[in-house]
Each structure stands twice: as C-alpha cells, then as structure tokens.
Design goal:
By secondary structure, the protein is an all-alpha fold. It is 95% helix and 0% strand. The chain has one helix and no strands.
Length: 37
C-alpha cells in the first residue's frame, strides 16, 4: 500500500516538473523573440 502511494506521488511530481519546464521554456522563448525581434 505504501509503495503504491510513493509511486503515485513520484509520478505526480514528475507531471508537475514537466508542466513547469514547459512553462519556463515558453517564457524563455517569448523573451528570446522580444530580444531578437
């Protein structure tokens, strides 16, 4: 039971970090476009 909970938490954390990375990448890309354009 505990092992399943740990796996769920790890997967949830992975999803969050993926979403944050994408948001960060979008921010960087937009800033880059502003600087370049």
């Amino acid at each position: 039971m505990t092992a399943v909970l740990i796996i769920v938490i790890i997967q949830y954390n992975n999803q969050i970090s993926k979403a944050q990375k994408q948001r960060w990448r979008t921010k960087v890309y937009k800033a880059f476009q502003k600087a370049g354009g």
